[in-house]
Design brief:
about 220 residues; alpha/beta; Rossmann fold; eight-stranded mixed β-sheet; two-stranded antiparallel ribbon
Length: about 220
């Protein structure tokens, strides 16, 4: 079987751990190559925490240095993400939901969408998934996952990766994940699950699967 590769593209150093850390761990356990692309916070303590979190997830890290809280759609970040796509050649990309209320998250989706579109002639067409958001609420209503990944077996590893980001009050995010992943787990009839939306809105039902490949 050809190597299967999954790439997350998120705005901040702890976003992948919070919204897709369990999925990355599950894919890694299944033998996939995993990578994280972070668009902001590329130096100082946050950069050190990002590397520690990626190491705990067993994922390669591509850490860009665009401005936190001021990320904007434009040619420079698009080209930077395009370079990451060319190097990683993912079959699955996970990124932010466009209804997310954080402006950096929305900009990341726009940048990722443009870069993926430009990359398809070179890397093919990866399956793209949107990840959950704060409180599961967006600009037009709740985040309704149509793909669930059972992360019960990797829950403590996901927690450890979130805790690597000590500068960001990680206990707050752990409490949020207990609630949101617990709710996704109820829908998937497991203890904990991470929720995703296939782009475009393609659904095979709310059943918790081992990895995102099973939703393709």
């Amino acid at each position: 079987m050809p190597e299967r590769r999954i790439l997350t593209i998120h705005a901040h150093p702890d976003d992948a751990e919070i919204w897709a850390g369990g999925a990355l761990l599950a894919h890694r356990a299944a033998g996939d190559l995993t990578a994280i692309c972070v668009l902001t916070g590329g130096d100082g303590a946050r950069a050190e925490e990002a590397q520690r979190g990626a190491d705990l997830l067993g994922a390669a890290l591509f850490h860009l240095s665009f401005p936190d809280r001021a990320l904007r759609f434009g040619p420079d970040p698009i080209e930077a993400v395009l370079r990451v796509l060319r190097e990683t050649r993912p079959g699955i990309v996970v990124t932010h939901w466009p209804e997310d209320l954080h402006p950096d998250h929305v900009a990341t989706w726009e940048i990722a969408r443009a870069a993926i579109t430009l990359a398809t002639s070179e890397i093919g067409r990866p399956a793209v998934f949107w990840s959950d958001t704060y409180g599961g609420l967006g600009a037009r209503g709740p985040f309704v996952a149509d793909c669930l990944v059972d992360v019960t077996g990797v829950w403590e590893q996901k927690r450890a990766a979130i805790l690597a980001h000590q500068s960001q009050d990680p206990e707050h995010y752990l409490q949020m994940m207990e609630s949101q992943c617990g709710l996704h787990g109820i829908h998937g009839q497991v203890r904990y699950a991470e929720g995703f939306i296939r782009v475009p809105f393609f659904s095979r039902g709310r059943k918790a699967m081992a990895t995102l490949w099973t939703h393709l």
